[in-house]
Amino acid sequence: MSFSAEVKKELSSLEIISPCCRHAEAYGMLITGRSFSLSSVSISTENAMVAELYSKIVSQECNIAAEPPEIRGRKLIVSFKKLSDRRKILDSFGHLPPEPTLRINRANIGNECCFQAFLRGAFLSCGAVTEPKKNYHLEFVIPYLKLSDDFFFLMDELGLGPKRVVRKGVYIIYFKDSEKIEDVLTIMGATNSTLELMGVKIKKNIINRVNRRVNFETANIDRSVEAGMAQVKAIKKIQRKSGLDSLSPNLKVTAELRLENPQASLNELEELHGFSVSRSGINHRLTRLLKIADELNGKKI
Ligand SMILES: [Zn+2]
Fold first, then answer.
1. Which residue from 1, 18, 31 is spatially nearest to 121, judged by alpha carbons?
2. Which has the closest alpha carbon to 166: 144, 193, 182?
3. How many structural domains comprise the chain?
């Protein structure tokens, strides 16, 4: 099941007790459905639970008979076929007489609790959220400009900070920020889905941190291997030009150990020296060897 379907399953299973919120939820589903006018009131969805809820909640709210979903390809359509039913629906939500442009009638979202229910209804009808493992995106697809304006300002008033874009002639109100998506899911009542999203986010963060750490360590290893190679090159040059016996006994020991162990780290060299000298002491000697080799430049064999 996709994450979007999971969220919708969770939202449509919530038990709404207060009548004001049931009304607001039904309104959210209706106004963002496929059609909401005297000539057609319908929803088109791929989700069977959403189709059933739409039929149930609208019929109960408006005291009319429920309409069974019809299958059309991958879609389920619920359509109120009787004109008298559609008139009752529009009347119940204060949309009679029919208006030239569809706007949100705020009288249907009376109390603060009802905002949540309204948003939930709208998401069930026209919303989608991508798999958090892939990326963070939650959207409401609204077919009409004025309606999308009303939606946008309503969400803005809730402090959700939505974004908007026009895609293929429809108006999209969306969220990209994972925290805002968590807020929207929580407001709608999708507590489990919010927790799931947070879990995925935490996992992603851990993986990123581990990867950064591995990259950092790899870079360090690369650097120490490179340094070892430069030291070996310098020691070989000293060997060739003036012989290792030309070095002080301490430097000679370190030079020989480095030649035999070109890739050893400072820790390993410390051990190879039998801990007779510290890491920084070894580092100092190696730097000294590089300097000596450098000074040999120009000297003839
Ligand atoms: Zn309410």
1. 31
2. 144
3. 2
Average pLDDT over residues 35-63: 95
Residue 231 sits in the same domain as residue 173: no
Do 110 and 156 fall into the same domain?
yes
* Residues linked to residue 129 through DSSP beta bridges, in sequence order: 138
> pLDDT confidence of 191, banded at 50, 70, 90?
confident
**Position 246: which residue type?**
S
User: Nearest to residue 181, comparing CAs of 41, 7, 18?
Assistant: 7
For ligand 1, the distance from its centroid to the CA atom of residue 117, given in whole angstroms, is: 7
Q: How far apart are CA 284 and CA 238, in angstroms?
A: 17
pTM of the model: 0.71
Per-residue pLDDT tens over the stretch 216-268: 777 777 788 888 899 999 999 999 999 999 999 999 999 999 999 998 888 88
**How far away, in angstroms, is 58 Cα from ligand 1 center?**
16
- Residue 192 above 90 pLDDT? no
* H or E segment and range at residue 170: strand 170-175
What lies within 8 Å, CB to CB, of 146 at 6+ separation is 101, 102, 103
- 101 shares a domain with 52: yes
Centroid of ligand 1 to alpha carbon of 108 (angstroms): 9
Task: Assess if residue 301 is contained within a domain.
Answer: no
Mean pLDDT confidence for 162-185: 93
Distance 11 CA to ligand 1 centre (A): 16
- Evaluated on CA atoms 3, 180, 145, 110, the torsion sign reads positive
* pLDDT for res 204: 81
For residues 10 and 87, membership in a common domain is answered with: yes
Q: Which domain holds residue 240?
A: 208-295
